[in-house]
Amino acid sequence: MSESKVNRRNFLKIVGAATAAGTVEMVTYKAYASTNSAPNGWKGTSGVSGSSAASMANTASPPDHQWAMVIDLRSCNGCKSCTAACQKAHYLTEDQTWIDVFTMTDTIGRTYSMPRPCMQCENPPCLHVCPVHATFRTNQGVVLVNQGRCIGCRMCMAACPYQARYFNWNAGVEYPSMPIKPTPEMPVPQRLGTVGKCTFCVGNLNDGLLSECAAGCPMGSIYNGDMKTDVGVNSMGNTIKLSEFLYDNDAVTFKTSQNTHPRVWYIMGHGQNLDNDDQAS
Amino acid sequence: MVVMDNKIESDQRDIVDSNADETWVNDVTESAMRSMRNKPGKAWWIAITLLGLVIVAGVIAWIYQLKHGLASAGYNDRAFWAVYIADVITFIGVSYGGAVTSAILRLTGQSWRAPLTRLAEAMALVTVIIGGTFIFPHLGRPDRFLNIVIYPNFSSPLFWDFMAILTYTVATMIFFYLPLIPDMAVVSKMLGDKKKLWQKFLYSSLSFNWLGTEKQKKALHRGLTIISLLIIPLAVSVHSVLSWAFALTSRPGWMETVFPPYFVIAALYSGTAMVVLVVAGFRKGYKLQRFITDRHFVRLGYLMVALGLVYLYLTFADLVTEGYTGITTGWIKQTVTGSYAPAFWFYVFAGELLPIFVVAFKKTRNATGITVASVFVVISLWVKRLVIVLPAATQPLIAGAWGSYHFTWVSITITLAGVAAIPFLLMIMFRFIPLFSIEEMEEAGELGSVEQVSAHTQVLAKILAKYTGLEVTAPKASKSLTASETEGK
Question: Could you identify which of A133, A140, A256, B114 might form a hypothetical disulfide with A52, taking C-beta atoms 3.0 to 4.6 angstroms apart as the criterion?
Fold first, then answer.
């Protein structure tokens, strides 16, 4: 009897908790890992096409890092400090919530908060539909926008299932004078009539710093991770072994049915999924 | 007996030769060139000035938008696609209608198409150019438009769009130009030696020494058949690819297999209505009632309503397949009962039911009724495109409230400028080219240009008339024909 229950539970986790969690559709890290050769056998560019990446990324030497992110929803209190920190660092307008905090409702009517940065998909829909290769994917697994090339057609905004892309609609946004010209890694000042999105603060990461959102999170909910060295760090100074942390906590990715293979994992744990299972049985 | 046979034969020859009836040809030539020969009247100047002002206002609005960003046109991150993409689809859609109506009628040998083809093809050319131009206000950075050629991404539906629209525009130009060749020769001959330099270029050079020999006619006919055959799949591809800009995203409401035929039929439907409007406008403006009769409108009306019913069916099929399972009902609720409901039901009533009733009742089944119905069809199909674009764009994909789009003076002015550009460009264009394809009118003959009657049948009818005294005229149409004729003169 108990065995059958466990089986069902495992099954639900594997096919994605979408059915159980209602609006959130996710798959477990365990399931993801089992489809790869080994739990630690990260494949940085699995399932990725995009000739544009090749021209932009340094393909001569293999990358030292494969950036990822873990968001622990158990400790997220929805304070939106991450959004504020991100907007401050990138001089974004109020509407440009590169990391946005959504209030989600589970199937028993309780709410929880869910920050949503760019998922840095390994199979990014935005990349495929861009007519001019303005969106590209670096060899560190980060999807970036070349605002010097973007023609502003907004096809990527139509294609992104995570609503993670934001356009520069307004002229007259004030930027400070920056020491260097805007780059895809640090698109400040942003250009009118082009699209922008979360960059994972990849410049920070490569300099050994946390991303602005992770650093700004007072709860330590956001971990920056490197799949290559298998390490994750949050603002509280907690260092985790990434793969184990994801495995032990049943980490899931968002909207798995979209076949995007996000590099952002969520740890559920207000009991949404598991409680729902019990309620349902 | 032998003598008698010979007499009949020679009579037949005479009649065949005189099928290209002298007075008929003269009348056709005179009417076709009304727009060129007569100095434009006061009404023409007033119309062209007003339309020109609207276009200038549109250009000013666009410059304002370039300076202030797309937010000035009402756009935001939740309504990232809105009015301009609906404009692009609408304009290119009506172009398709003009081209395909003309091509299909040509291929199926409908002789009554003769007085309509030139107007339909000119409309197709003008609207595809306007539709293509509307990509520029749609883009955030139109100055970088050529990046699509410099850094093309072959996997992007928008790149396919670009290629398809470009190819289709070229095909439309050829389709417009080929039937124009004999007319250019007619005009060139009429102007004689008193041609100015531009006239020499336009009429003499572009007529390619057209003499109307059998060989030339045969070559032209073959060319026209080929381009008529080509333009149909080309236009289908343009609208399929346009629909894929939506259908190849994962958005509920857009990711629909029905989208390519859905867009193709919408284009045909609105295009036929646009043909009616253009024909009605020029018929009234240049008093062409003798050649373009109620019967032309009724036939176009039948075609339009048939296409409209297919479109209604596809709309229903789309809604019911998405809605029944309840997986992605958000955008359907918004469309049918939510904030987009007024627009959606406007389309159903004004864009579908009204034309059906107009065509169904004998009292309204005439030029005026069908023209009024066409106005509603064109407007409601533009509204329908907005209802396709906006609910799926503004829906929350994760959680939270719906986004919304609000019209601003910028987006309204730019759209109106596009609308004004259609009559503006057509009125100027027809100052330089004949209103009908004179060649086709000649071929169709007086009766054939109203009814579906082949030249051969007309010869037989004339022989019959000669020997039996029975007159064969177009039923009913001839009545309104004479009535309109007196009205026209």
Answer: A133
B373 close to B358: Cβ distance less than 8 angstroms: yes
* CA B477 to centroid of chain Cα atoms: 24
Helices B214-247 and B367-394, axial angle in degrees (round to 10) = 40
Partners of A28 in the β-ladder = A252
CB B436 within 8 A of CB B179: no
Residues in chain B predicted with pLDDT less than 70, given as ranges, are 1-21, 453-455, 470-489
* Distance (Å, whole) CA A145 – CA A195: 7
The answer to whether B181 touches B208, Cβ cutoff 8 Å, is yes
Give the residue among B248, B70, B159, B155 at the shortest CA–CA distance from A159.
B248
Question: Is the distance from CB of B151 to CB of A149 less than 8 angstroms?
Answer: yes
Domains of chain A plus CATH, in order, are 13-280 (3.30.70.20)
Burial of B488 (0-12, 13-18, 19+ CB in 10 A): middle
What pLDDT shows up at residue A10? 45
Q: Phi/psi of residue B124, each to 5°?
A: -60, -45
Per-residue pLDDT tens for A198-220?
Answer: 999 999 999 999 999 999 999 99
Give the closest residue to B1 by CA, choosing from B237, B9, A30. Answer: B9
Instruction: Find the CATH number of the domain harbouring B452.
Output: 1.20.1630.10
Residue from the list B141, B145, B250 with its beta carbon closest to the beta carbon of A125: B250
Q: Is residue B4 part of a domain?
A: no
Burial class from Cβ neighbours inside 10 Å (0-12, 13-18, 19+) for residue B456 reads exposed
10 Å Cβ neighbour count for B8? 12
pLDDT band at A278 (very low <50, low <70, confident <90, very high): very low
Judge whether B1 lies within some domain: no
Q: Report chain B's C-alpha Rg in angstroms.
A: 25
ipTM above 0.95, yes or no: no
- How many domains does chain B fold into? 1
Instruction: Print the domain residue range for B107.
Output: 11-488
| Pairwise CB contact (< 8 Å): A151 & B151 | no
Signed CA dihedral, B463, B466, B469, B475: sign only: positive
Inter-CA distances, A264 with A10, A268, B187, B408, Å: 22, 13, 70, 38
With 0-12 / 13-18 / 19 or more C-beta atoms within 10 angstroms meaning exposed / middle / buried, residue B42 is: exposed
What rounded mean pLDDT belongs to chain B?
87
Write the single-letter amino acid at A127.
L
Chain B residue whose CA is closest to A125: B249
B430 belongs to a structural domain: yes
Interface test with B, best of A103, A136, A151 (most B CBs within 10 A): A151
- The answer to whether residue B6 sits within a structural domain is no
DSSP string, B113-131: GTTTHHHHHHHHHHHHHHH
| Probe site for chain A from B145, B155, B242, B405 (most A CB atoms < 10 A) | B155
CA distance A123 to chain B (A): 13
Higher-confidence residue of A33 and B198: namely B198
B349: DSSP letter: I
d(CA A45, CA A35): 15
Q: Is the dihedral of CA B398, A93, A123, A128 positive or negative?
A: positive
Q: Is the dihedral of CA A25, A30, A34, A36 positive or negative?
A: positive
The contact set of B with A (CB < 8 A) is: 67-71, 75-77, 80-81, 138-142, 144-145, 147-148, 150-153, 155-159, 162, 245-246, 248-251, 254, 393, 396-400
A236 lies within 8 A of chain B by CB? no
